[in-house]
Amino acid sequence: MAKKRSSSSTSGTAKKRKGPAGQQPKRFPLQKIHELLKSKFPSGVVKPEAAVFLTAILEYLSVEFLELSANVARSREKDGDKLTVTLQDTLNAIKSDPEIMELLEKVKKKG
């Protein structure tokens, strides 16, 4: 028989990541995404795993967009300590990445 883990034994030992200003990193709202899925598919059953999977995909894509946008902003701003990512940087990053362009074209065709 497998031992059950208690959440109290590891709760004090886990380290939390903090952002530059000592804040917790932003997370996608898993519960809101699950509720959105349930509202879009009222006749079917939406398992919680579907919301977790979709949330992970959205987090991954947002990190990719931000990373590409920051690279474009860095190439635009050669000097300066503070990096500012603009909408134009994001649009240029999207246009320069063929995989993202392909993904967006597929999304536009479906919708």
By DSSP (H or I, 4+ residues per run), the number of helices equals: 5
Structural class comes to mainly alpha
Q: Tell me, rounded to a whole number, the average pLDDT.
A: 82
How many beta-strand segments? 0
Distance between the termini: 49 Å
Largest sheet: none
User: What does the radius of gyration come to?
Assistant: 20 Å
What is the element string, with H for helices and E for strands? HHHHH
The helix fraction, in percent, is 55-70%
Q: Tell me the strand percentage band.
A: under 5%
* Rough outline: flat
Low-confidence stretches: 1-12
Give your account of this protein's structure.
With 111 residues, this protein is mainly α. The protein has five helices and no strands. The radius of gyration is 20 Å and the shape is flat. The N and C termini lie far apart (49 Å). 5% of the residues are buried. Mean pLDDT is 82; it is low at 1-12.
Output the keywords:
111 residues, mainly alpha, 61% helix, 0% strand, flat, chromosome, Histone_H2A, structural constituent of chromatin, protein heterodimerization activity, nucleus
Secondary-structure map:
Layout: H1 7-11, H2 30-40, H3 48-76, H4 87-96, H5 98-110
Helix pairs in contact: 2-3, 3-4
